[in-house]
Amino acid sequence: MFTNLRPVFAAAAVLVSSSLAAQYSRSGSYVRSIGNSWLGGRVSVSAALSTTTSILTTSTTRTSNASLTAAVDGNVLTHGFRAAQLTFSARNSVRIGVGFGAPQSATASFRLQLAGYNVWDRSVTTTGDLGGIPARTYSLFPSDVHADVGVGPFTVRLGGNAGVTLGAGAVVILPTTTPEVRLMLSGTTAVLGRANVSVGVSGFRAGVELQARFAEQRLTVSLIANALSGLSGMCDYQIQAMSLRLIAYLEAFWTRVYSTTLASWASGFVGRDLLNL
Amino acid sequence: MKVVGAACAGDLLSFCTNAARRGVAAWAVTTMNHPRQSRFALLASLTCLTLACGGLLLWTHDGGAALPLAEATPAQANDDGAAGERRDHQRLARTDAAQHVGFYSAAVGSTFEYALKGRFEYSVSHPEGGRQPSGMQVGGAMDVCVADRRDDMILVRVELRDLTLSALIGGGGNDEGGMGNAARKPFHVQLGPDGRVRGYLFGTDLNGQQRNFVRGLFAYYAHTVPADAHGAWQATDVDAAGEFEADFRVVDAHADGQSIERKKQRYTAMAGPELHPHTLSGQSRATFDTAMGWLRAVEVDERTTTKMEELGLEIDLRAVLSIALQKHGEGAPVSVGALWDAAWLPAAGHGEDLTTKDDASERATWTKRLAGQTLVNLIDDLAALLAAAPQDPEAIDRAWQALIWLTKLQPKVAADIQARVNAGMETRLADMLVSALGAAGTEAAQDVLAAMRRDAASTPALRTSATIALFQVAEPSARVLGDLAGDLGRANDLVGDDAMAMLLLGALAPRAADTKIDGRNAFETLLALEGKTVQQDRTDLWLNALANTGTADVLPHAQRYTAHENDRVRAAAYAAARRVDKPAGVALLERGLTDRSADVRVDVVVALGEHRSPAARAALIRAARDDSDATVRRRTLSGLAGFAKKNADARQAIEQMATGDPDADNQKAARTVLDGLR
């Protein structure tokens, strides 16, 4: 008896689950490396907007998404670290029609990492100021990192640290009854890595000092993802020239008696619209 | 009467066995050069050995008991030069009840006083910048005393007496690192019967660099030579820099001794994460005195060139050292029995902890640099730099470093900074001063920051600034931890500064050692806040605070939330493993790659990008290739870029995305990454 109903159940299942989905998305990203594992780093930024419309027989769900991640990785004397990271994500989903659960689901979160630590973490489920921190400089490692090597009775001292500047703030608008995410965000980062390589004993040292100046970047974002009207806005990204310099010095009586730039690497200024809609 | 008899018998035994030993040694040498003469030497040796055995039997029959070595009649130290040395040695040898074979056979109590003179020329070079030379001369005396023997080990006491260090060329300064002082302190060395250094016992007040300096000097002196050494051979040995392979050969052999040449070939182990390319040249020559049973002289002319390829640097060291015997005698008996059981340090120095936190030399350097500077001067300098256009980030950083060190060196500076900031100043300048307090991390600076966090009269921005500054503190004080725990306990709504306080507690927990807050350590305090965060729907914040600890201890707690209904909580649960670069951490993140939510998987691949293990790399490659969501695949690029310079698989994964990913944006992003890697 039940076997006769099987096609009916199957048809109903097909009817209920039958959906029409449409997705629109735009994304942009940039990744750049400089130097090497002893001194250098990498910047990466990625932004994406998308909307999805799912039409079921009983309801239509429209969802808007916005996400953005900007990260700065650094290397000082083979010690790798995430100097700074900014992560934003938002979703606003509105369902029209019959269905289970709330008709709207909205959430946005904004996290900042500094020197590998989460320092800011705010989530909202409605329109709100996600806050942030003003730009200021921090010492990356609580104590300098070292990669000392013995040569004969002496130690080739390799020590370094970095100053990281991070500042960012964000505001998100998650309108009620409208599947839209509006984001306004700005962020700046900079890293100044320092490393010393010297040999000898204190008071009788020769060495070089290395400086890595990189990840001076500025991110300005004003984006709208609306599942009804589409995607708009811009995500502007600028990064200043990155440079690494080696400076030789000779230490005498606790002062560097002379110094000379040994080598430098540099990349040019980059300004790019990750998203321009 | 018995004592005299015993001493005499001991002397006779010692004399004859020593003569026999010298005869055997002479026979060994002459056999190589003059086979005919060798038969006479061997015959003489055997005769002496027979007499010695006879004497021993007679004495034993008389009922005498052998005296401990330390009770044997000490020979007088002799100042008469070489001839005197030889006579002295004979007296010494007669007191030695246990004879030893090999090149290091001197009796317990033997003392050797050497003149030590040399220079160390070193330089740091760069192909474009040329060579930065420096160096020092070393001089003084080295006293070596055979303090004890046990089984196949020799315990010697060494003192680098009157050691002086002076500038060789340029860069001359005082030895303000205290290397000379450290080196002048007596130390003990365990040697094998072949002279191989087995371990060191230094004064407890020496730091790693000082221990290695002493280790390095002694390693030039000590030469490992097996008892049956002849011709040429290869062997491994150790010194301050690490473990090396060397060629040895007998360069001069005669009845009185032999000279051994050692040429270091290569290091097989050095300090650091990798074995730096290096070349070794030159040699050392050790001259042994067979009769004395010890080293007579060492001449060193060695060169080590170490390349640090990724920095484009070359470190060159030439060591020229002469160690020549001046006197030989017997010192006063020393009780060293307890030393054998002491905590001996390894013979090789590459495992030494060469870092000295906030070490004395760094403090001394900054003390001199900041002489005459005041807080007002330094603040004015920084203010001027911040106001300049265009700004000079390096100069700003230097000025900021100076403020950090002034705070470290002068405890009252922290309170002065607080007063000045409270009085009002430009925002960025104030923020940098507050941040300098955190970077200095002194008790006084922490007290000021703790007060600032809770100062109701202060601006919210300044309170936030103080909280963020505390993330830099290396050793958080009990007051700071107690304040954080108290604030979190009272917080009704975990947002803003209270949310930041929880994140700060996570960051400081692993640095807080065993500091207790109401009977709990910092990590336990953080764990105890779980219920509160669950109540406030801030479990993700708690998990993010756990992530800040960066330890594997967080994994079981994060694991419990990987099935949570809320995407944010699951994402935070997986991200708690982002700083746990261990198999268990990667395993948790790998599970996250199968999460139903693409948003969660994005956070997972971003977290994997912070790892450096091959397992994390493989997981990223899989996600880049197989994940169904374009955004997830694209977010793997940043992590893969970190591996791609050294790993072909990671680079190939990016190349595949650049050409084969179904999403056009992903292809474009991958091409951008490949451009950035060039």
Strand content of chain A: over 45%
In total, the number of strands of chain B is 11
User: What is the approximate shape of chain A?
Assistant: elongated
Low-confidence stretches of chain B: 1-98
Distance from N terminus to C terminus of chain B (CA atoms, Å) equals 91 Å
Provide the residue-averaged pLDDT of chain B.
82
End-to-end Cα distance of chain A, whole Å, is: 59 Å
Give me the side-by-side strand order of the main sheet of chain B: 5-4-3-2-1-11-10-9-8-7-6
What's the tally of helices of chain B? 25
Order of helices and strands of chain A: HEEEEEEEEEEEEEEEE
Descriptive report:
The complex is a heterodimer of chains A (277) and B (678). Chain A is mainly beta and 277 residues long. Chain A has one helix at residues 2-17; strands spanning 20-35, 39-55, 59-76, 79-97, 104-114, 117-124, 128-139, 145-146, 149-151, 154-173, 180-199, 206-226, 230-239, 243-252, 255-266, 270-276. The longest helix of chain A is centred in the first third of the chain and has 16 residues, at 2-17. Chain A is elongated and about 80 Å long. Residues 1-16 and 250-264 of chain A have low confidence and may be disordered. Chain B is of the alpha+beta class. Helix content of chain B is 47%, strand content 21%. In chain B, strands 5-4-3-2-1-11-10-9-8-7-6 form an eleven-stranded antiparallel sheet. In chain B, a hairpin with a 4-residue loop joins strand 9 and strand 10. In chain B, helix 21 (598-608) packs parallel to helix 23 (630-644) and helix 23 packs parallel to helix 25. The N and C termini of chain B lie far apart (91 Å). Residues 1-98 of chain B have low confidence and may be disordered. The chains are: A mainly beta (277), B alpha+beta (678). At the A-B interface, strand 1, strand 2, strand 3, strand 4 and strand 5 of A face strand 1, strand 2, helix 5, strand 10 and strand 11 of B.
